[in-house]
Amino acid sequence: MLGRFGDQNKVTIHLDGKEIEAYDGDSVAAALWGSDVKVFNHSLRFREPRGPACMIGLCNCCDMIVDGIPNVRTCIIPVRNGMKLSVQGKTK
Amino acid sequence: MIGRIYDMTVVGSGPAGLTAAIESSRLGCKRVAVIDENFVTGGQLFKQIHKFFGSKDHYAGIRGFRIGELLLKEVSDLGVETVTNAAIIGMFDAQADIKRLVTAGADRVGEILSKKVLVASGAMENTVSFPGWTLPGVMGVGAAQTMMNIYRVRPGQRVLVLGAGNVGLIVAYQMLQAGIEVVGVVEAMSRIGGYQVHADKIRRMGVPILLSHTVKEAIGKEYVEKVVVVELDENQKEVPRSEKPFDADALCLAVGLTPNTELTRLAGCKHIFNRELGGLVPLHSERMETTIDGIYVAGDVAGIEEASVAIDEGRLAGTSVAEDLGMISSESAAKTSKERWIRLCELRSESFGEPRKRAKISIVEEYWKVKGNQMGSKKRWFTEINTERAPSAKASRNAPSIKSNDNRKGPRAIIECYQEIPCNACETGCNFGAIKVGFPMTNLPDLDLDRCKGCGICVAKCPGLAIFVVDTSYSEKEATVSLPYEMLPVPEVGQEVEVLGKLGGFVCKGKVIRVVHTKDFDETRVVTISVPKECATEARFIRVAKRSGK
Question: Cα(B348)–Cα(B345) distance, rounded to whole angstroms?
Answer without folding.
Answer: 5
